[in-house]
Amino acid sequence: MFARTAARFALRPCVASPVKARAFNTASRATASLSSRRMATMVTAGVITASALSYAYLQKPVSADSKPIAGVEGTFSERTFIAIKPDGVQRGLVGKIINRFEERGYKLVGLKALVPSKELAEKHYEDLKERPFFGGLVNYMTSGTPVIAMVWEGKDVIKQGRAMIGATNPLQAAPGTIRGQYAISTGRNIIHGSDSYASAEKEIGLWFGAAGELTEWTPANVEWVQSDN
């Protein structure tokens, strides 16, 4: 009986090798897991760094989101600053003015209603600070009635926006322009528009300089408005 028992134990397969194999596989998996964690850490660090750089870029007052703050001059991405002044707001002309730019085919990418600070108004009109009416102009713009500040985008929008607005003196503005239709006094001429690409850069930066204040979007009818064939 002892001999048979000894023979059975002798014939049993050795279990040491599978145990070693499992231990080896576990070690391999641990090493691979550590490598994966290290790789994930490196990738995460890279993403954080890229995000930080992107955030820093967006904080520059002369850029907005994915393009220069005034777009690219002469292209469909060109942008201009348009402001409906307190008299235009008091007279209920906001919707009519917005409608004109929309019907022309331009895209609204920034809009806010605010009572500008004295500092903002003075900075906006700093090229007129030596004129005798400067103080009255600043007081009028900061009187408490909001200004409707807007950024419109589209081809040649700076020049065309000025043409749509009309001459500074409404009595000299062409019939059909905004001032030609709605205003009779230079001091209450309803609306402001950038007169050059440099002005658009400055004015959009002043009124919409923070990151995320301008919206990039595509109108559903873009193919029927923007095409040079």
Quick synopsis:
The chain is of the alpha+beta class. It is built from ten helices and six strands, in the order H-H-E-E-E-H-H-E-H-H-E-H-H-E-H-H.
What strand line-up does the widest sheet have?
A: 4-5-3-6
Q: What structural category characterises the helix and strand content?
A: alpha+beta
**Which shape, going by the Cα principal axes?**
globular
Look at the structure and give the mean pLDDT: 81
* Count of alpha and pi helical runs: 10
Run of helices and strands:
HHEEEHHEHHEHHEHH
- What is the distance, rounded to the nearest whole angstrom, between the alpha carbons of the first and last residues? 101 Å
What share of the residues does DSSP label as strand, in percent?
5-15%
| pLDDT < 50 stretches | 1-36, 39-64
Count of distinct strands: 6
Rounded to an integer, what's the Rg over CA atoms? 33 Å
Q: How helix-rich are the residues, as a percent range?
A: 40-55%
Main sheet record: 4 strands, antiparallel
Structural notes for this entry:
The protein has 229 residues and is of the alpha+beta class. It is 49% helix and 12% strand. The protein has helices at 2-11, 16-58, 86-90, 94-104, 118-124, 134-141, 157-165, 178-182, 197-207, 222-225, and strands at 63-64, 67-68, 79-84, 107-114, 147-153, 191-193. A four-stranded antiparallel β-sheet has the order 4-5-3-6. Strands 1-2 form a two-stranded antiparallel ribbon. Strand 1 (63-64) and strand 2 (67-68) form a beta hairpin. The radius of gyration is 33 Å and the shape is globular. The chain starts with a helix and ends with a helix. The model is unreliable at 1-36 and 39-64 (pLDDT under 50).
